[in-house]
Design goal:
This protein folds into two domains: about 5-35 and about 45-55 and about 115-285 and about 460-510, no CATH class; about 65-110 and about 300-455 and about 520-585, Vaccinia Virus protein VP39 (Rossmann fold), CATH 3.40.50.150. It has helices spanning about 15-20, 20-25, 30-35, 75-80, 90-95, 170-185, 195-200, 205-225, 230-240, 250-265, 275-280, 285, 295-300, 305-320, 335-345, 365-385, 430-440, 460-480, 490-505, 520-530, 540-550; strands at about 145, 155, 325-330, 355-365, 390-395, 415-420, 445-450, 530-535, 560-565, 565-570, 575-585. The chain has about 600 residues and is of the alpha/beta class. Strand 10 and strand 11 form a beta hairpin.
């Protein structure tokens, strides 16, 4: 069984070391990082590459620097957006964000450009001398960390780590300190205790949270080593002190304890077939397809959806400036609000309106929901006086998809949109390969891909547990900041959607494990096989990402990082989503 201790126990700050041949050989992903052909005979092992280290800095734009007439959406158009039928008005109010025009970057001077920090300047460049212990936890998170916005800089591992302890630590900070202390307690040869000084200055509540998170890490270790009796005792302790209505840390521990408990029961044969059936019946992606109070709350209160929507719209505008007919092929259409934003942007573009906007929605279930979205978009297009066509391509499964199902006009500029859709096919590599070949045959002008930026598909349970713990810690911290403690929609998000995801990733293996996210470096290697080249996001896209985030009360904690040409959207420095734009090379 792999150890969990290198979670923190070695330096990953050096970008060259991170992709070194020895590390790639150890992880079995050397071919991914070299861009060679990736074999996908099965779902296991996708994403065993550690990905890139995270630095995440804000772009530093000031919305006041741009005049009102420079926005993509005028005040008049923002008012029109409220007229879209059957969509909650409050949500639309929150979607009324001004976007910069597609050619704004031509008029920017150097001091207005986003401040991007190279990965080589990462705060984790300082080597870590902590010894390896009995667990391989924290392996992608370095030996130090930094809170953005000047809060509690734990950049080093000496006595200066806690110079500003009066401010509240983030949920991820608590988990990271717990991981450090866990490694200390797991090693007999630690000569110093870098977080002792920090821990002594924490509040009573923060100390409780750190100790609770330590117990969670210890229980994961015992399950990894199949020490089930000891694991059960530790989980009893976690379950007694955690709470699904408490602090963000206590909520995280509560849901991860549930997942570890289920894994323990599965490995010891104590889970019933009825429970297994109930666990597999819920599909969170399907549940979020139609507008409902919880999905609308996500749009209204969390910055990530709107940031990615506006970035995607801007990328489409940038790559179809002269197009008279635009055909959007959407592999993951939901409520269609992003396309209403696109309509407004097209209606006001400088080179005149489009002759036709066509949207083709691809689906395998719930055709009636797609039809409802089409009706809403049709009505909205009429209010914008935009010629509009909405088509639906239904297939029993994605293996049945083929180019002939799409009504393609040679005069159209085709754009493929995949919003968290490809990840759903990672557990069925043959479906993913088939879909990509169809897209390759269609050869769109661009393909815009939004995905989860996390490695939730490692074959090693402990690595997967680690990645999942940090990812959801950041998300729970976001909910704690953006939504009230007793908000009903927050409770649903955490218990139904996040709880399902945590349980599926942590507790299940084989075909039962449906949630299999991988990072952008793995997607890059995969896309290269189909002759796809990553395009640079325009300065307008980066600028409007900052504008959208800053319109949220919690927007200052929404952070951005450029990984190559890909935009990583994160929370307090932890990447959560990636947005990238791709084009296909000519056959010649």
């Amino acid at each position: 069984m792999d150890d969990l201790c290198s979670f923190i126990g070695f330096n990953i700050g050096d970008a060259d070391d991170e992709h070194s041949s020895s590390n790639d050989d150890y992880l079995g992903t050397k071919e991914l990082n070299e861009g060679k052909e990736v074999q996908f005979s099965g779902a296991e092992g996708w994403g065993d590459s550690g990905g890139t280290s995270s630095l995440c800095s804000n772009f530093g734009f000031n919305p006041d620097d741009i005049s009102e007439e420079g926005y993509l959406l005028s005040p008049h158009q923002q008012k029109d957006l409220q007229q879209m039928p059957d969509i909650d008005y409050e949500t639309l109010d929150n979607l009324q964000f001004d976007m910069v025009p597609p050619l704004l970057q031509d008029n920017m001077n150097s001091d207005q450009l986003p401040s991007m920090v190279p990965v080589s300047e990462s705060i984790n460049d300082k080597p870590c001398s902590l010894p390896l212990a009995s667990l391989e936890l924290l392996n992608n998170y370095g030996c130090g960390f930094k809170r953005l916005n000047g809060e509690r800089n734990f950049q080093t591992v000496d006595d200066s780590v806690a110079t500003d302890v009066e401010r509240k630590l983030s949920t991820e900070d608590i988990i990271r300190i717990a991981g450090k202390r866990f490694i200390q307690s797991s090693s007999e040869s630690v000569d110093f205790h870098p977080y002792d000084s920090c821990f002594s200055r924490l509040s009573h509540e923060e100390k409780e949270d750190v100790e609770l998170a330590e117990s969670l890490l210890a229980s994961a270790e015992k399950i990894a080593y199949q020490q089930f009796e000891r694991a059960s005792t530790l989980l009893n302790h976690c379950e007694s002190l955690s709470s699904k209505t408490g602090t963000a840390v206590k909520r995280v521990v509560a849901y991860f304890s549930d997942a570890l408990r289920e894994r323990l029961h599965r490995e010891t044969g104590r889970i019933s077939a009825k429970v297994l059936s109930q666990r597999q019946s819920f599909d969170p992606d399907q549940a979020m397809k139609s507008p409902n109070p919880t999905s609308l709350a996500c749009h209204a209160k969390l910055p990530f959806c709107q940031v990615s929507f506006f970035c995607e719209v801007q990328a489409i505008i940038d790559n179809s400036m002269d197009a008279k007919k635009i055909h959007i092929i959407d592999f993951a259409i939901k409520d269609g609000v992003n396309w209403s934003i696109l309509m407004q942007a097209l209606e006001s573009r400088h080179n005149g309106p489009v002759e036709l906007l066509k949207i083709t929605a691809v689906g395998t279930t719930s055709k009636h929901l797609l039809e409802d979205v089409g009706k809403r978009l049709m009505n909205f297009a009429q209010t914008m006086n935009i010629p509009f066509s909405f088509k639906i391509v239904m297939v029993s499964n994605m293996l049945d998809l083929n180019k002939d199902l799409f009504e393609i006009d040679p005069e159209e500029t085709i754009v493929v949109s995949s919003h968290f859709r490809l990840k759903r096919m990672l557990s069925q590599p043959d479906h993913l390969e088939s879909v990509m070949k169809v897209i390759q045959n269609i050869k769109p002008a661009v393909m815009v891909v939004t995905e989860v930026e996390a490695n939730h598909n490692a074959t090693s349970f402990v690595n997967r547990f680690t990645e999942t713990l940090f990812y959801f810690s950041a998300y729970f911290d976001c909910l704690d900041t953006c939504m009230k403690k007793d908000d009903a929609n927050r409770m649903i998000l955490e218990s139904v959607y996040f709880g399902h995801g945590i349980r599926n990733i942590v507790a299940m293996e084989g075909d039962e494990r449906k949630i299999r996210n991988v990072k952008i470096d793995v997607w890059r290697a995969f896309f290269e096989r189909f002759g796809m080249v990553e395009k640079e996001l325009s300065m307008s896209s980066l600028y409007q990402a900052e504008l959208v985030a800053k319109r949220f009360a919690c927007g200052s904690s929404c952070t951005f990082e450029m990984n190559g040409n890909c935009l990583l959207i994160g929370w307090k420095g932890t990447p959560l989503h990636s947005l990238s734009v791709w084009e296909f090379l000519d056959d010649d």
